[in-house]
Give the backbone structure.
Amino acid sequence: MYHRIGRPNPKSLFRGHYVAPKQFENHLKALALLHFEVVSLSEALNESSSKRRVVITFDDGYRNLVENAFPPLIERGYPATVFLVANQIGGYNAWDADNGDVTEPLLNLEDIRLAKSRGIDFGSHTLNHVDLSAVSKDEAQREIYESRELLEQKLGQAPRFFCYPYGRQASETRQMVREAGYELACSTRKGTLQDDAFALKRINVRRDSTLPLFVLKLYRGLIYDR
Ligand SMILES: [Zn+2]
């Protein structure tokens, strides 16, 4: 799980969310060297494999991905899934900015269409990046269903995957996501062993995830889950 790929804005409240472009490239190189197969979420979902596999995801859809993440991924033929805040396509991280964070531009429709044509997949991260555990049932339903409809309208294809903002969800929320037609959903729970397709665990990759730590995170996940 990545967020922003770029140099941190010194005023950001989430400086840990920025992974330097060089660091990101090093992560990709390490995956290849360690013989991890990078697969898409749908491959991970549908095909079993004896190989060590990873899925790369990005939350929020920051525009710095266009310059810093998509080119090295596309060059290696690595798939990835970006979770978009549907009402903020071409907008900014309003949900963070409202809490005092710096504003960062988000992917616009042209960026998304171009990346999609090159193997990057897009899922829903709600309409407005709300904490689904803190809003009414009706509002949660609207965020889950309408983001799907809006992305379908804009991209010509309904998103297959969902990601909970802040990782927050309850069994009721997971049920709603399933009923809306999504095939799986990512949480922010740590780990690699996947027991619930609607609360998938991930490994958080951050600014301080230097190469040794990145490798440790990959293997530690495997060990802790045993
Ligand atoms: Zn998010």
